[in-house]
Each structure stands twice: as structure tokens, then as C-alpha cells.
């Protein structure tokens, strides 16, 4: 497991920072604006995107990608890249089996793509880095939504530019529901809250300062576009959807006041077995859905969501929950087990099945490593080549991929993401992965020196799809490959 000392080391000159020293120094020396005190600004929620047209089978949307200004820091306007002028982008709510069609129009002066992260979609709508929307033109993306309910997110994926364009704002939540999830008596409506969490650095004039590999020089934590906000909550149960939208920042989420999480879902949807957690690790692009019981907290208390492995103490507090009155007259006892928590919600049987057993037809090995001489990141010793297919896969095949973090000496972490599929993590360094971290996943964390085996079944669509490190500064510097699913 990555601890706080490891994180500090990973950001030092002995780790990834050595690759871009000039940029890091320039960012570190830039002027910093006055920052609001933690928990002095209320949490905001991105607006829901409304369909412009509906049929019996499909919801149609229009989105403009443009450069706009927002007041992130009090009294200062910050120039951002946005979807429909929103930071983060508007929340898209979809239903399994009902198609979502979105026409994105690029009003920026540079190319853009849109990737629905974690989605099983045709290659033509995957948002491949080499399939951009040119300035002044539009592109229609079609999402069939033939997959389980999940917290997905959409973001820019333009080749060599995704790191900066996501950092400057091009990201939003895509919440997919299905009949199974709707039948569960989980918190809903205003008690079901997406939290898009990331780090940032602001210049003295309020601008967003972007440099490659600027991990330790992004001192501000934003939640739904607000710096370390607060949220007034009732003494009841809430569902929180945690999304790590950072380029490089890892989080280990904890709650103060002795509160715990009931984790009910991972990247690709509900867990086969929910788990009580005191801490939850999420690296860039990972998601977790949790239920928190504020009935067990005294009225007037402040529960703080923290990052216990923050490299800077200023970044440790993420947001504050201000617990109001009302609710039960006394303190409700905290559930000591996931089963007890579920029973308290009225759930006797958890209706989610474990992944089916399949026989793999192919084993592959991918080594992730950095080259300090060229400032590039490689997979199997090679940078990304748009003409190269690194794996040709028969449609319907189940494969085991061995992901090796070859940067043990440099101390650089990587997070491998596969487009198109959700997978199961079989083991890490020869040991089984905890069930709450094993399935369903589309991104896998790898500490320096780790060897992780994942198993995926490619039974969705045919076509060419990327796989890459989701530390976006790494993928922007060539840590990406392509697989092609064929019949």
C-alpha cells in the first residue's frame, strides 16, 4: 500500500519530478493568490444536462465545448475550458438500455475529443485520441448504455493535449442507472451527491497554472470546482460518488469523527459484496460509490473528508460536512459490518453477482516505464505509435494481462486504464486483491515494482481502442498503446 512517505518520495527529484525539472521550478516560483479558508465556501453541484429531444428509445443532447470564465476563487475570474460553460461539466444521467446521443460542437480554437471513461461503446464513439473534433465543427457520439449501473465520467482525450485540457476543465460526471440499482433502497435525489475531486494551482491573477508533471506544486483541492467546500447535511444516510479527476494526485479518503464508509460500487458499478471501509484509495480516474450514515454523528458536528496521504498538509482536508439537527432523537449506533449497514437500509439480499468464471485464451505482458533521457513514458519499451496495434483480440475472448510497473528504481507510480471493458484484478505481486478493489474495474493502480494480473472479456464492440496510463501527464508523453478487437 502507498503511504504518505511513499507519496512524498514519488513527488521528489528521485521520482517522476526528475523528468520535467524546469517546468516544476517555474511553477513552484510563480506567485500564489490569496486562498479562501478551508470550508468557507459552500459545495456546488454541476447542473444536470437536459435532453433537447426524446424518443421512446433515445435521449438527444447538445453540448458546446468552449473557453469561458468562472469565479473559483472569491472575487477573481479564471479562464477555463468547459462543456456548456459549466465547471465541472454538466452531469449526464442515463438509463441502461436507453441510448444517449450527444452532439458536441467545438467552439475552441483547437481540437477536442470526448471520451466516456468506463463505457462499453462503439469505437466510432469512444473518443479516440486520434479522432478529434476540429475547431468550429461538431461530432455525434452514441452511447448504447448496454452495461450495469455505474458512476462514469467524460473528459477530453486529444492526443498530446488531454493532460492540459482536462486540467483546464474538460471533465464531467455521467451517471448510469439500471433497474437493479433503482430497486435498492439507497439514498437518492438530493441525498445522492457526485463529488468530482482534483487538485490545481492558481497564479496571482487567478489563472490556472499548468505545467507537465507538476504534482507537488498544485496546492489547492477542488470539489465540484470549489476549493475545499462545505456541505450542510441532515442527520440521515447519504450516497456519495467519489471521482478522482486529477492528472496525478492520488487520494486516500478518510472521514473524521470516527465515521466510516460503506463502499457499494467501484469503477464499473456495484460491488458483488459491499464493504465497510475506514479508508479508500482512488488514483486518477478511479471511482467509488459510498454510503455514509450521519445519524451516528451528534448534531452540530463537522465531519471532514480528508486525504490521509496528502504530500502537503494544506491538501489534507478535502471538504467538510456540517451535520444539522433533526433526524433521530438519539445517536444511532454505527453499524459494525456491511451486513448490518445494509440491513439498516432495509436491504436483506444484495442482488449483485460475482464475475463469471471464464477460461482465458491468451496471456499478455505489458511493462510500464519512464525514460529520463527522452522525458517519455513507455509501454514495453516503446512510445505510442498511431500506426501500431499492440494486441489483436478475437471478439468474445477472455485474456489475462500482466501489468508490470518497471519504474521501481525511479519510484514512479502508474495507473493502467483499458478502454471498452471492465476487468477483474486477479492478484498483485502474487497475492489476491481485496474484493472491494478487484471488480468491476477499468483502471488499476500499480506502485513502483508491482506486478498485477487482470482478466478481461472483450465481448462488447469490435474496433481499435487505446489502453494507457491514466496519470495524464504520462499518457500525454507516450505511455499509451492500442488493442483491436476483431471477428
Automatic annotation (TrEMBL):
Domain (Plastocyanin-like) ranges: 65-179, 360-485
InterPro entries membership: Cu-oxidase-like_N, Cu-oxidase_C, Cu-oxidase_fam, Cupredoxin, TAT_signal
PROSITE patterns: TAT
Gene3D superfamilies attached to this UniProt entry: Cupredoxins - blue copper proteins
A Pfam family annotated for this UniProt entry: Cu-oxidase_2
Protein family: Belongs to the multicopper oxidase family.
PANTHER family given in the database record: BILIRUBIN OXIDASE (PTHR48267:SF1), CUPREDOXIN SUPERFAMILY PROTEIN (PTHR48267)
Protein name per its UniProtKB record: Multicopper oxidase
Species assigned in the record: Amycolatopsis oliviviridis
